[in-house]
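Hey everyone, long-time lurker, first post.

I ran two proteins through the pipeline my lab uses and got sequence/structure pairs for each. Pasting them in order. The first:
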Amino acid sequence: QVRLVESGGGLVQAGGSLRLSCAASGFIFSGNTMYWYRQAPGKQRDLVASITSGGNTNYADSAKGRFTISRDNAKNTVYLQMNNLKPEDTAVYYCGYRASRWYWGQGTQVTVSS
């Protein structure tokens, strides 16, 4: 079965960096687009970044210039490098995969203090 396990979240001061990881299993990772979404308390889940099987990337405006999504197909892992973090980046970050439906990991909390 599909399994997505995020890690790397934590508490960081504004201006700091974090690197999130998502280990995937149960499907052909290398052939699929992978996504990072985030959800702040009381808000909807929003796209942060995506990366296709060929390595093409797409970012939300809020992430452009600060976040970098990448993937290691040998490790079935997708990453999100987050630099210059801001308090408004505080959220639970989810790794996602869309087949006939969406699959999500358990999420990892990112908290940015001012």
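...and the second, right after it:
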Amino acid sequence: QVQLVESGGGLVQAGGSLRLSCAASGRTFKITTVAWVRQAPGKEREIAASITWRSGALRYRDSVKGRFTISKDNAKNTVYLQMNSLKPEDTAVYYCAARDTDYSDYNYWGQGTQVTVSS
């Protein structure tokens, strides 16, 4: 089907930046939307940002607007999440997720990458 591999997490001080990458392989022609989904300890998963595969339409949750930028490189089948002005509350495991049907649940998931922001 579709395989997703994330990279780029790590430890950074508040105010710093990180860039996450999500490399997609397999039947990528099935993808309609890719999202970065994060889960902090003891909290539910939340979508930080998403991008539609063909048109490149972007969506962000309010708490990351102006600080995070999602983008994609079609030639590399890779989606990026540039995170600037990081805050301790951004600490979470970040997952790359994809779906093959609009408005449905995300049905392809990467393994996750840890992002830790120290104060």
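Reply from user beta_strand_b:
Welcome! Quick read of the second one: The chain has a mean pLDDT of 96. The chain is about 0% helix and 55% strand.
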